[in-house]
Protein backbone atom coordinates (compact mmCIF):
# COMPACT_ATOMS: atom_id res chain seq x y z
CA UNK A 1 0.00 0.00 0.00
CA UNK A 2 1.17 3.52 -0.72
CA UNK A 3 -0.30 6.73 0.60
CA UNK A 4 -0.94 9.87 -1.42
CA UNK A 5 -1.87 13.07 0.42
CA UNK A 6 -4.05 15.63 -1.37
CA UNK A 7 -4.94 18.99 0.18
CA UNK A 8 -7.80 21.11 -1.13
CA UNK A 9 -8.06 24.78 -0.13
CA UNK A 10 -11.17 26.74 0.81
CA UNK A 11 -12.20 27.82 -2.68
CA UNK A 12 -11.69 24.28 -4.02
CA UNK A 13 -14.23 22.79 -1.60
CA UNK A 14 -16.65 25.72 -1.45
CA UNK A 15 -19.46 24.39 -3.67
CA UNK A 16 -20.84 21.11 -4.91
CA UNK A 17 -19.68 22.17 -8.36
CA UNK A 18 -16.06 22.75 -7.28
CA UNK A 19 -16.11 19.55 -5.19
CA UNK A 20 -16.85 17.58 -8.38
CA UNK A 21 -13.33 18.55 -9.52
CA UNK A 22 -11.98 17.55 -6.11
CA UNK A 23 -13.61 14.13 -6.34
CA UNK A 24 -12.19 13.64 -9.84
CA UNK A 25 -8.64 14.18 -8.54
CA UNK A 26 -9.20 11.80 -5.63
CA UNK A 27 -10.56 9.11 -7.94
CA UNK A 28 -7.59 9.58 -10.25
CA UNK A 29 -5.12 9.12 -7.41
CA UNK A 30 -6.92 5.91 -6.41
CA UNK A 31 -7.03 4.45 -9.89
CA UNK A 32 -3.86 5.70 -11.59
CA UNK A 33 -1.55 4.82 -8.73
CA UNK A 34 -1.50 1.09 -8.03
CA UNK A 35 -2.46 -0.10 -4.55
CA UNK A 36 -2.89 3.43 -3.28
CA UNK A 37 -4.90 4.97 -0.46
CA UNK A 38 -5.58 8.69 -0.24
CA UNK A 39 -5.54 11.05 2.71
CA UNK A 40 -7.49 14.17 1.78
CA UNK A 41 -6.95 17.30 3.85
CA UNK A 42 -9.63 19.98 3.59
CA UNK A 43 -9.94 23.64 4.55
CA UNK A 44 -13.21 25.27 5.62
CA UNK A 45 -15.85 25.74 2.91
CA UNK A 46 -15.05 28.94 0.98
CA UNK A 47 -14.26 32.41 2.23
CA UNK A 48 -16.36 34.97 4.09
CA UNK A 49 -19.35 35.59 3.51
CA UNK A 50 -19.80 31.82 3.00
CA UNK A 51 -21.41 30.72 6.29
CA UNK A 52 -18.86 28.09 7.39
CA UNK A 53 -15.68 29.94 6.40
CA UNK A 54 -13.30 30.63 9.29
CA UNK A 55 -13.91 34.40 9.25
CA UNK A 56 -17.70 33.90 9.20
CA UNK A 57 -17.50 31.63 12.25
CA UNK A 58 -15.46 34.28 14.07
CA UNK A 59 -18.21 36.82 13.38
CA UNK A 60 -20.54 34.72 15.52
CA UNK A 61 -18.60 35.94 18.57
CA UNK A 62 -17.89 39.49 17.31
CA UNK A 63 -14.20 38.74 16.86
CA UNK A 64 -11.87 40.57 17.58
CA UNK A 65 -13.84 42.41 20.30
CA UNK A 66 -15.09 39.17 21.78
CA UNK A 67 -14.93 37.84 25.31
CA UNK A 68 -13.91 34.34 24.39
CA UNK A 69 -10.66 32.82 25.45
CA UNK A 70 -8.18 31.76 22.75
CA UNK A 71 -9.08 28.22 23.71
CA UNK A 72 -12.74 28.79 22.86
CA UNK A 73 -11.85 30.57 19.61
CA UNK A 74 -10.03 27.40 18.60
CA UNK A 75 -13.07 25.29 19.46
CA UNK A 76 -15.13 27.55 17.23
CA UNK A 77 -12.68 27.89 14.35
CA UNK A 78 -12.00 24.16 14.17
CA UNK A 79 -15.67 23.57 13.28
CA UNK A 80 -15.17 24.97 9.76
CA UNK A 81 -12.75 22.24 8.70
CA UNK A 82 -14.70 19.54 10.56
CA UNK A 83 -17.85 20.49 8.62
CA UNK A 84 -15.90 20.45 5.34
CA UNK A 85 -14.51 16.96 6.06
CA UNK A 86 -17.99 15.51 6.60
CA UNK A 87 -19.49 17.26 3.58
CA UNK A 88 -16.76 15.96 1.26
CA UNK A 89 -16.82 12.47 2.76
CA UNK A 90 -20.59 12.35 2.23
CA UNK A 91 -20.19 13.26 -1.44
CA UNK A 92 -17.37 10.76 -1.95
CA UNK A 93 -19.67 7.99 -0.71
CA UNK A 94 -22.38 9.24 -3.05
CA UNK A 95 -19.84 8.75 -5.85
CA UNK A 96 -19.08 5.20 -4.67
CA UNK A 97 -15.73 5.97 -3.09
CA UNK A 98 -15.35 4.46 0.37
CA UNK A 99 -14.46 7.25 2.68
CA UNK A 100 -14.31 8.28 6.33
CA UNK A 101 -13.99 11.76 7.87
CA UNK A 102 -11.72 12.42 10.85
CA UNK A 103 -11.01 15.55 12.86
CA UNK A 104 -7.36 16.51 13.26
CA UNK A 105 -7.42 15.07 16.76
CA UNK A 106 -8.92 11.77 15.60
CA UNK A 107 -6.29 11.62 12.85
CA UNK A 108 -3.64 11.62 15.58
CA UNK A 109 -2.34 15.18 15.22
CA UNK A 110 -0.82 16.25 18.54
CA UNK A 111 0.12 19.91 19.04
CA UNK A 112 1.53 22.08 21.80
CA UNK A 113 -0.92 24.27 23.73
CA UNK A 114 -0.31 27.62 21.99
CA UNK A 115 -3.96 28.20 21.12
CA UNK A 116 -4.59 29.87 17.70
CA UNK A 117 -0.97 29.24 16.62
CA UNK A 118 -0.24 25.76 17.87
CA UNK A 119 2.71 23.76 16.53
CA UNK A 120 2.36 20.14 15.51
CA UNK A 121 4.53 18.12 17.89
CA UNK A 122 3.93 14.69 16.47
CA UNK A 123 1.40 12.55 14.65
CA UNK A 124 0.18 9.18 15.76
CA UNK A 125 -0.42 7.26 12.51
CA UNK A 126 -2.23 4.24 14.03
CA UNK A 127 -5.79 5.45 13.53
CA UNK A 128 -5.38 6.35 9.85
CA UNK A 129 -3.59 3.07 9.06
CA UNK A 130 -6.30 1.15 10.93
CA UNK A 131 -9.08 2.87 8.96
CA UNK A 132 -7.29 2.20 5.67
CA UNK A 133 -8.22 -1.47 6.17
CA UNK A 134 -11.86 -0.51 5.55
CA UNK A 135 -11.72 2.76 3.62
CA UNK A 136 -9.86 3.97 0.54
CA UNK A 137 -10.02 7.63 1.47
CA UNK A 138 -9.64 9.33 4.84
CA UNK A 139 -10.77 12.95 4.80
CA UNK A 140 -8.94 14.85 7.54
CA UNK A 141 -10.04 18.27 8.79
CA UNK A 142 -7.06 20.57 8.19
CA UNK A 143 -5.74 23.40 10.38
CA UNK A 144 -6.44 21.66 13.69
CA UNK A 145 -5.09 19.25 16.25
CA UNK A 146 -5.27 18.37 19.90
CA UNK A 147 -2.95 18.91 22.86
CA UNK A 148 -1.65 16.00 24.96
CA UNK A 149 -4.49 16.65 27.40
CA UNK A 150 -7.24 16.74 24.82
CA UNK A 151 -7.75 20.44 24.15
CA UNK A 152 -8.67 21.31 20.55
CA UNK A 153 -6.16 23.67 18.91
CA UNK A 154 -5.75 25.40 15.56
CA UNK A 155 -2.38 25.92 13.93
CA UNK A 156 -2.70 29.36 12.28
CA UNK A 157 -3.89 30.67 8.91
CA UNK A 158 -2.75 28.56 5.99
CA UNK A 159 -2.47 25.69 8.49
CA UNK A 160 -4.16 23.09 6.28
CA UNK A 161 -1.05 23.12 4.08
CA UNK A 162 0.97 22.17 7.16
CA UNK A 163 -1.52 19.47 8.15
CA UNK A 164 -1.05 17.97 4.68
CA UNK A 165 2.74 17.90 4.59
CA UNK A 166 3.00 16.81 8.25
CA UNK A 167 0.68 13.88 7.48
CA UNK A 168 2.72 13.22 4.34
CA UNK A 169 5.84 12.87 6.47
CA UNK A 170 4.15 10.79 9.19
CA UNK A 171 2.55 8.38 6.71
CA UNK A 172 5.64 8.32 4.48
CA UNK A 173 3.50 9.40 1.56
CA UNK A 174 4.59 8.87 -2.01
CA UNK A 175 3.78 12.52 -2.66
CA UNK A 176 1.81 15.46 -1.31
CA UNK A 177 -0.34 17.45 -3.72
CA UNK A 178 -1.58 20.92 -2.76
CA UNK A 179 -4.59 21.83 -4.89
CA UNK A 180 -5.60 25.46 -5.09
CA UNK A 181 -7.20 28.09 -7.33
CA UNK A 182 -4.09 28.87 -9.41
CA UNK A 183 -1.90 26.77 -11.71
CA UNK A 184 0.95 26.34 -9.27
CA UNK A 185 3.65 28.55 -7.85
CA UNK A 186 3.80 31.59 -10.08
CA UNK A 187 6.48 34.19 -10.74
CA UNK A 188 4.39 36.64 -8.65
CA UNK A 189 0.92 36.81 -7.15
CA UNK A 190 -1.38 36.73 -10.21
CA UNK A 191 -3.74 39.08 -8.37
CA UNK A 192 -1.03 41.74 -8.59
CA UNK A 193 0.84 40.85 -11.78
CA UNK A 194 -1.45 40.08 -14.70
CA UNK A 195 1.21 38.32 -16.77
CA UNK A 196 2.69 36.23 -13.92
CA UNK A 197 3.64 32.75 -15.13
CA UNK A 198 3.47 29.38 -13.40
CA UNK A 199 6.79 27.65 -12.74
CA UNK A 200 7.36 24.03 -13.71
CA UNK A 201 9.82 23.50 -10.92
CA UNK A 202 11.11 25.31 -7.86
CA UNK A 203 13.50 24.33 -5.07
CA UNK A 204 12.37 23.86 -1.44
CA UNK A 205 14.67 26.71 -0.57
CA UNK A 206 13.16 29.13 -3.09
CA UNK A 207 9.57 28.31 -2.23
CA UNK A 208 10.23 28.62 1.49
CA UNK A 209 11.66 32.11 0.91
CA UNK A 210 8.73 33.12 -1.30
CA UNK A 211 6.28 31.72 1.27
CA UNK A 212 8.05 33.32 4.22
CA UNK A 213 8.06 36.70 2.47
CA UNK A 214 4.35 36.65 1.77
CA UNK A 215 3.45 34.41 -1.21
CA UNK A 216 0.47 32.88 0.49
CA UNK A 217 0.05 30.06 -2.02
CA UNK A 218 1.66 27.72 0.52
CA UNK A 219 2.44 28.09 4.21
CA UNK A 220 6.19 28.27 5.00
CA UNK A 221 5.92 25.69 7.78
CA UNK A 222 4.35 23.24 5.32
CA UNK A 223 7.41 23.57 3.11
CA UNK A 224 9.73 22.98 6.08
CA UNK A 225 8.09 19.64 6.88
CA UNK A 226 8.24 18.49 3.27
CA UNK A 227 11.82 19.67 2.90
CA UNK A 228 13.09 17.91 6.01
CA UNK A 229 11.67 14.56 4.94
CA UNK A 230 12.26 15.21 1.21
CA UNK A 231 8.61 14.46 0.44
CA UNK A 232 7.86 15.36 -3.18
CA UNK A 233 5.46 18.27 -3.26
CA UNK A 234 3.29 19.37 -6.14
CA UNK A 235 1.23 22.57 -6.14
CA UNK A 236 -1.50 22.53 -8.76
CA UNK A 237 -4.93 23.73 -9.82
CA UNK A 238 -8.10 21.94 -8.75
CA UNK A 239 -9.63 22.90 -12.08
CA UNK A 240 -6.93 21.45 -14.37
CA UNK A 241 -6.19 17.86 -15.29
CA UNK A 242 -2.43 18.23 -15.11
CA UNK A 243 0.36 20.75 -14.77
CA UNK A 244 1.43 22.62 -11.69
CA UNK A 245 4.72 23.16 -9.92
CA UNK A 246 7.04 20.50 -8.59
CA UNK A 247 9.00 21.39 -5.48
CA UNK A 248 12.32 19.58 -5.33
CA UNK A 249 15.71 19.82 -3.73
CA UNK A 250 16.97 20.54 -7.22
CA UNK A 251 19.56 17.81 -7.67
CA UNK A 252 17.54 15.17 -9.50
CA UNK A 253 15.80 17.69 -11.68
CA UNK A 254 18.99 19.48 -12.58
CA UNK A 255 20.15 16.52 -14.58
CA UNK A 256 17.40 17.30 -17.06
CA UNK A 257 17.51 21.06 -16.92
CA UNK A 258 19.65 23.21 -14.68
CA UNK A 259 17.62 25.16 -12.15
CA UNK A 260 20.30 27.74 -11.70
CA UNK A 261 20.01 29.03 -15.25
CA UNK A 262 17.61 31.59 -13.86
CA UNK A 263 18.79 34.38 -11.61
CA UNK A 264 15.41 35.38 -10.24
CA UNK A 265 12.62 32.86 -9.71
CA UNK A 266 9.82 34.95 -8.33
CA UNK A 267 8.66 38.00 -6.44
CA UNK A 268 6.69 37.97 -3.20
CA UNK A 269 5.08 40.82 -1.36
CA UNK A 270 3.60 41.57 2.01
CA UNK A 271 1.51 44.61 2.83
CA UNK A 272 0.10 46.33 5.91
CA UNK A 273 3.42 46.74 7.64
CA UNK A 274 4.63 49.48 9.97
CA UNK A 275 8.25 50.58 10.10
CA UNK A 276 9.57 51.46 13.55
CA UNK A 277 12.74 53.59 13.81
CA UNK A 278 14.40 54.28 17.11
CA UNK A 279 17.33 56.66 17.33
CA UNK A 280 19.73 56.49 20.21
CA UNK A 281 22.91 58.22 21.32
CA UNK A 282 24.54 56.23 24.10
CA UNK A 283 22.11 53.44 24.74
CA UNK A 284 22.40 51.36 21.60
CA UNK A 285 23.13 48.16 23.48
CA UNK A 286 20.26 48.58 25.95
CA UNK A 287 18.04 49.43 23.04
CA UNK A 288 18.82 46.35 21.03
CA UNK A 289 18.68 44.00 23.98
CA UNK A 290 15.47 45.37 25.50
CA UNK A 291 13.39 46.23 22.47
CA UNK A 292 13.38 42.81 20.84
CA UNK A 293 12.82 41.00 24.10
CA UNK A 294 9.83 43.24 24.87
CA UNK A 295 8.39 42.65 21.40
CA UNK A 296 8.82 38.89 21.74
CA UNK A 297 7.26 38.89 25.21
CA UNK A 298 4.22 40.69 23.77
CA UNK A 299 3.96 38.15 20.93
CA UNK A 300 4.71 40.79 18.28
CA UNK A 301 6.56 39.36 15.32
CA UNK A 302 9.33 41.63 14.06
CA UNK A 303 10.97 41.50 10.68
CA UNK A 304 13.42 43.42 8.59
CA UNK A 305 15.72 44.31 11.48
CA UNK A 306 18.58 46.75 10.73
CA UNK A 307 20.81 47.70 13.63
CA UNK A 308 23.52 50.36 13.60
CA UNK A 309 25.35 52.04 16.46
CA UNK A 310 22.88 54.92 16.44
CA UNK A 311 19.64 53.39 15.25
CA UNK A 312 17.41 50.34 15.31
CA UNK A 313 14.88 49.83 12.48
CA UNK A 314 12.36 47.05 12.14
CA UNK A 315 8.91 46.28 10.83
CA UNK A 316 5.83 44.89 12.53
CA UNK A 317 2.35 43.99 11.29
CA UNK A 318 0.38 47.22 11.06
CA UNK A 319 -2.47 46.04 13.29
CA UNK A 320 -0.20 45.83 16.35
CA UNK A 321 1.29 49.32 15.93
CA UNK A 322 -0.46 50.91 18.94
CA UNK A 323 0.50 48.05 21.23
CA UNK A 324 4.14 48.13 20.07
CA UNK A 325 4.44 51.90 20.55
CA UNK A 326 2.96 51.65 24.07
CA UNK A 327 5.54 49.04 24.99
CA UNK A 328 8.38 51.17 23.61
CA UNK A 329 7.15 54.26 25.47
CA UNK A 330 7.09 52.28 28.70
CA UNK A 331 10.74 51.41 28.09
CA UNK A 332 11.49 55.10 27.53
CA UNK A 333 11.90 54.92 23.75
CA UNK A 334 10.02 57.26 21.43
CA UNK A 335 10.11 55.77 17.92
CA UNK A 336 9.36 57.27 14.55
CA UNK A 337 6.41 55.30 13.21
CA UNK A 338 5.70 54.87 9.51
CA UNK A 339 2.48 53.03 8.74
CA UNK A 340 1.24 51.74 5.36
CA UNK A 341 4.48 50.15 4.25
CA UNK A 342 4.94 47.03 2.14
CA UNK A 343 7.77 44.61 1.58
CA UNK A 344 8.75 43.32 -1.84
CA UNK A 345 11.11 40.34 -2.00
CA UNK A 346 12.99 39.16 -5.05
CA UNK A 347 13.87 35.47 -4.69
CA UNK A 348 16.15 33.22 -6.72
CA UNK A 349 18.60 30.46 -5.84
CA UNK A 350 20.56 31.47 -8.94
CA UNK A 351 21.32 35.01 -7.72
CA UNK A 352 24.08 33.88 -5.35
CA UNK A 353 27.35 35.30 -6.60
CA UNK A 354 25.79 36.94 -9.65
CA UNK A 355 26.70 40.63 -9.67
CA UNK A 356 24.23 43.35 -10.53
CA UNK A 357 21.00 41.91 -9.14
CA UNK A 358 20.69 44.47 -6.35
CA UNK A 359 21.58 47.37 -8.63
CA UNK A 360 18.99 46.23 -11.15
CA UNK A 361 16.36 46.23 -8.42
CA UNK A 362 17.32 49.72 -7.28
CA UNK A 363 17.44 50.98 -10.86
CA UNK A 364 14.04 49.67 -11.86
CA UNK A 365 12.39 51.04 -8.69
CA UNK A 366 14.08 54.40 -9.20
CA UNK A 367 12.95 54.50 -12.83
CA UNK A 368 9.42 53.93 -11.57
CA UNK A 369 9.76 56.81 -9.04
CA UNK A 370 9.54 54.48 -6.07
CA UNK A 371 11.32 55.35 -2.85
CA UNK A 372 13.14 52.55 -1.02
CA UNK A 373 12.73 52.94 2.76
CA UNK A 374 14.91 50.05 3.82
CA UNK A 375 16.59 47.05 2.20
CA UNK A 376 18.29 43.79 3.13
CA UNK A 377 19.56 40.66 1.44
CA UNK A 378 20.56 37.04 1.92
CA UNK A 379 21.98 34.43 -0.47
CA UNK A 380 18.70 33.86 -2.27
CA UNK A 381 16.60 36.94 -1.50
CA UNK A 382 16.83 40.71 -1.78
CA UNK A 383 14.03 42.59 -0.13
CA UNK A 384 13.01 46.22 -0.01
CA UNK A 385 10.55 48.16 2.10
CA UNK A 386 8.47 50.72 0.24
CA UNK A 387 5.29 52.73 0.72
CA UNK A 388 2.23 50.56 0.30
CA UNK A 389 0.82 52.97 -2.31
CA UNK A 390 3.74 51.95 -4.59
CA UNK A 391 3.28 48.22 -4.15
CA UNK A 392 1.48 47.40 -7.38
CA UNK A 393 3.88 49.45 -9.47
CA UNK A 394 6.94 48.04 -7.67
CA UNK A 395 6.04 44.37 -8.11
CA UNK A 396 5.15 44.89 -11.75
CA UNK A 397 8.33 46.90 -12.49
CA UNK A 398 10.53 44.22 -10.96
CA UNK A 399 8.61 41.46 -12.74
CA UNK A 400 9.30 43.30 -16.01
CA UNK A 401 12.93 44.10 -15.17
CA UNK A 402 13.74 40.42 -14.66
CA UNK A 403 11.61 39.42 -17.66
CA UNK A 404 9.63 36.94 -15.62
CA UNK A 405 6.68 36.90 -17.99
CA UNK A 406 8.99 35.18 -20.48
CA UNK A 407 9.32 32.12 -18.25
CA UNK A 408 8.69 29.04 -20.32
CA UNK A 409 5.97 26.99 -18.63
CA UNK A 410 5.13 23.60 -20.09
CA UNK A 411 1.92 21.99 -18.89
CA UNK A 412 2.71 18.37 -18.21
CA UNK A 413 1.79 15.49 -16.00
CA UNK A 414 4.80 15.05 -13.79
CA UNK A 415 5.94 11.77 -12.44
CA UNK A 416 7.96 12.46 -9.37
CA UNK A 417 8.04 10.01 -6.60
CA UNK A 418 10.24 9.49 -3.64
P1 LIG B 1 -6.15 27.99 -0.69
O1 LIG B 1 -7.44 28.38 -0.08
O2 LIG B 1 -6.27 27.01 -1.80
O3 LIG B 1 -5.11 27.59 0.34
P2 LIG B 1 -4.82 30.58 -0.90
O4 LIG B 1 -5.68 31.76 -1.18
O5 LIG B 1 -4.32 30.36 0.47
O6 LIG B 1 -5.60 29.30 -1.43
O7 LIG B 1 -3.55 30.58 -1.88
C1 LIG B 1 -3.74 30.73 -3.27
C2 LIG B 1 -3.55 32.19 -3.67
O8 LIG B 1 -2.20 32.57 -3.39
C3 LIG B 1 -3.72 32.47 -5.13
O9 LIG B 1 -5.06 32.70 -5.48
C4 LIG B 1 -2.83 33.69 -5.36
O10 LIG B 1 -3.57 34.89 -5.43
C5 LIG B 1 -1.95 33.76 -4.11
N1 LIG B 1 -0.53 33.85 -4.44
C6 LIG B 1 0.35 34.74 -3.90
N2 LIG B 1 1.57 34.59 -4.41
C7 LIG B 1 1.51 33.58 -5.31
C8 LIG B 1 2.46 32.95 -6.17
N3 LIG B 1 3.75 33.32 -6.20
N4 LIG B 1 2.03 31.93 -6.94
C9 LIG B 1 0.75 31.54 -6.90
N5 LIG B 1 -0.20 32.09 -6.12
C10 LIG B 1 0.16 33.11 -5.33
MG1 LIG C 1 -3.85 28.70 1.68
TrEMBL record:
GO term, biological process aspect, one: lysine biosynthetic process via diaminopimelate
Domain CASTOR ACT: 339-400
Pfam family, one: AA_kinase
Residues holding substrate: 54, 81
Pathway the protein contributes to: Amino-acid biosynthesis; L-methionine biosynthesis via de novo pathway; L-homoserine from L-aspartate: step 1/3; Amino-acid biosynthesis; L-lysine biosynthesis via DAP pathway; (S)-tetrahydrodipicolinate from L-aspartate: step 1/4; Amino-acid biosynthesis; L-threonine biosynthesis; L-threonine from L-aspartate: step 1/5
Signal sequence residues: none
InterPro entries the record matches: AceGlu_kinase-like_sf, ACT-like_dom_sf, Asp/Glu/Uridylate_kinase, Asp_kin_monofn, Asp_kinase, Aspartate_kinase_CS, CASTOR_ACT_dom
Class of enzymatic activity (EC top level): transferase
Sequence similarity: Belongs to the aspartokinase family.
Functional description taken from the UniProt entry: Catalyzes the phosphorylation of the beta-carboxyl group of aspartic acid with ATP to yield 4-phospho-L-aspartate, which is involved in the branched biosynthetic pathway leading to the biosynthesis of amino acids threonine, isoleucine and methionine.
NCBIfam families: asp_kin_monofn, asp_kinases, PRK06635.1-4, PRK08210.1
Record-given protein name: Aspartokinase
The species this protein was found in: Ornithinibacillus halophilus
